[in-house]
Amino acid sequence: MRTAAPDRMPLDEGIIATVEGASEATEEPIVMYLKISNVSDETASIRSYTLVNASAGVPLPAFSAGSHITVRVTGSIRRQYSLVNTPGSSDHYLISVLRDREGRGGSQWIHENWKVGGIIEADGPANNFKLDESAGRVILIAGGIGITPILSMARRLQQIGSDYHLYYCARSVEETAHYAAIVNSTLCRNVTFIHNKGTKAGRLDVSRLLCDGKEDCHVYVCGPHGLVDAVKSATRGWPPETVHYELFGADPSAIRCREGDSEFTVTIGSTGQSFAVPVGQSILRVLTDNGVKVSKLCEEGYCGSCLTPVVSGKPDHRDSVLTQAERNSGELIALCCSRAESEHLTLDL
Length: 349
Known about the structure:
It is a single chain. This protein is of the alpha/beta class. Helix content is 15%, strand content 29%. The longest helix is centred in the middle third of the chain and has 14 residues, at 147-160. The model is unreliable at 1-27 (pLDDT under 50). The protein folds into three domains: 31-126, Translation factors (Elongation Factor Tu (Ef-tu), domain 3); 137-246, Nucleotide-binding domain of ferredoxin-NADP reductase (FNR) module (Rossmann fold, 3-Layer(aba) Sandwich); 264-347, Beta-grasp domain (Ubiquitin-like (UB roll), Roll), CATH 3.10.20.30. It has helices spanning 106-113, 147-160, 179-183, 206-209, 225-234, 283-289, 324-329, and strands at 31-41, 46-53, 68-74, 77-82, 93-98, 119-126, 137-143, 164-170, 191-195, 217-222, 243-246, 264-268, 274-277, 307-312, 315-316, 332-334, 339-340, 344-347. A six-stranded antiparallel beta sheet has the order 4-3-6-1-2-5, covered by helices on one side. Strands 9-8-7-10-11 form a five-stranded parallel beta sheet, sandwiched between helices.
């Protein structure tokens, strides 16, 4: 949803948009133009950016703990970054960006080009990693840059007086993003830092920590795949709705193509157009090849950008975004990786 634009110079050729009264519940993406008001180094490789509305005085859309925004980096490159600050803040967003020299270039471009006073374009906020504020107790586990959504959750739980504890894993104090902000706040009473100096011996003992699961206890984890896998393994006996995780990359254990896969038909609900989805091709690829416009980003099943409502048919879920309850409902499907168990699938597009 685009809103009225004030008379200012554009990011590229557009106009700086004013965002008023929008929220993360909006069905269409909220397009925002944000001004970089502050840049600070958290570690040698992680930099934080404070973003405000480019139209001065206009509040930003509300967000909940675990939310992210999708920023336009350059050209067609877009990236998602978790909001680190406390939900309820309407004057600014705070994101932290790890410079990944082995990545696809987005984070390096940001580190090299984002300066105070610059204007960026972003969609959001959106939330695929929602915090259940009704939980009796919450265990938060973060590894490295995975602290970003987890810290927002800790701040929200502190804000509402919930029972929680955060276990924050990093190699050293020097490589611990937001360390000063945590130790110099009331959060520090509920945070345990695990600095392993890069050795296995100093790692968090996840199995021991989570050996006694309770129905009113929820665990949230974000970090390297090894940490997430350890939490998933340690909580196998827990109620599935109490275990939550977010990945910053494709799940290496996910099997996108399986023996026994077969062709099926996907139908666009609004037009009645039908397309065959052959073995080895995704729904997303078939739709885009046929001119159907679909939101996409990672194309590997972990970002949630292509989640689409299902009108009829039974999805075969292969993403790492939807919860077990959401999978069981069959109401959404990740077009980039999931398929259909039924012969036909109708989408709300």
